[in-house]
Amino acid sequence: MFKHILVPADGSDLSKATARRAVSFAKEAGARITAFFAKPEYPVSYYGEGALIDPTTPEKFDELAEQQAQQVLDFVVDLGREAGVRVEKLSLTSDIPYEAIIDAATQAGCDLIFMASHGRRGISALLLGSETHKVLTHSTIPVLVYR
User: Fold this and answer.
1) What b/e readout covers 9-24, taking b as 16+ CB neighbours within 10 angstroms?
2) Which part of the chain is the UspA domain (predicted)?
3) Percent of residues, the chain, with pLDDT higher than 70
């Protein structure tokens, strides 16, 4: 069965519910978890100086992104601790979350990606796309989708 599960997290209610279920699943399977957070890249203006004024420096932006990552990942670590499941933390910087998720799973040596789906159907799913769908179609690692 699965021994090392990647659990992408973003701090949303859906992400927290998924983390809870992933920890329960890992406990039943005797697996460990790598909790993952994709930090955003610093936004760059392509319209010239002063077009969009953002007072946040790249350093401050990175610091805030790291704080957010640690807060989100610590939630999963705490769930694991309570359940007796080993949880490690990993964050990568990327503006393409699905690629970051797949890269993180590969880098950590995971044999399963356990992630949420918003459950969109029909035209909204086609128009909005889905990071989960992109992971499903691009990953060579099995993906378990929780909804």
Assistant:
1) bbeeebbbebbeebbe
2) 1-147
3) 85
Q: What is the mean pLDDT of residues 54-75?
A: 90
| Statement: the pTM of the whole predicted model exceeds 0.70 | yes
How many Cβ atoms are within 10 Å of 28's Cβ, its own excluded?
10
Any idea which residue has 């694991």 for tokens?
80
* Angstrom distance (rounded) from CA 72 to CA 106: 21
Amino acid found at 40: P
Q: What is the amino acid identity at position 57?
A: T
Q: Residue 145: what pLDDT?
A: 94
Which distant-in-sequence residues (6+ apart) come within 8 Å of 137 by Cβ? none
Name the fold adopted by 4-146: Rossmann fold (3.40.50)
Domain limits, the chain? 4-146
How many CB atoms within 10 Å of residue 98? 22
